[in-house]
Amino acid sequence: MTTVNKMKKKSKKAAPKRTKSFDKLVAYHEAGHAVMAYHKGGKFPSMHMDLSHLLPNVVAAVAPVKWPSGKGTERNEGLYRLAGRVVVEILLKNPDEYKENRNIDDLNKFCKLWKTKQEREKYFLELYLESITFFKEPVIWKQVEIVAEYFLERRLLTYDDVELCIKSVESKKRKKQLEFEKKAWGKIHHHRKSD
User: Fold this and answer.
1) pTM exceeding the 0.85 threshold for the entire prediction
2) How far is CA 161 from CA 52, 155, 165, in A?
């Protein structure tokens, strides 16, 4: 079954009512996927808002991610799949407000390594906690915010757009670090002169 057919099957559910606050949740959800994919080495052509002209009731999506082959690919895919819901839970500060069911169905679809439900649930919890830790990093959260805001504004972002958003946060952090180091070096140099 192709990705489009899978999405069409999912899209038969009733479409949620569109509001500014709903669009913001959607933007953050998709930004979470995009930022996680970027940091885990995944590449995607674009992310889109307002896909209802192609797929009824599909609000937004990050296009299929291509992962580098090798060790860790399945884990990265799991983290990517959880990223959207984790970001929205952090944003709302109350996971109960977010109605998306936090079950392991989507992890079961690609994860064939674990034979028992207990093993799958343990793996899910491990990935879930890793995702929360990842997104609670201030620099990562700022990246999510910038990608989400830009996505809300533009409604379509390419991988390169997402990369620019992420690098803008990284360069601002580096600039602040250099300013701090310059001030610290100035104080050290001033103390040496006075000695």
Assistant:
1) no
2) 23, 12, 6
Above 50 in pLDDT, residue 47?
A: yes
- Domains within the chain, CATH numbers bracketed: 3-194 (1.20.58.760)
Q: Taking the alpha carbons of 2, 4, 7, 8 in that order, is the dihedral positive or negative?
A: negative
Q: Where are the extended beta strands (E) located within the chain?
A: 46-49, 60-62, 156-158
Asked if 83 and 131 touch (Cβ cutoff 8 Å), the reply is yes
Q: C-alpha distances in angstroms, 57 versus 14, 19, 61?
A: 7, 14, 12
CA distances from 128 to 7, 18, 47, 76 (A): 24, 28, 23, 12
Q: Quick: pLDDT tens for 113-124.
A: 666 778 877 888
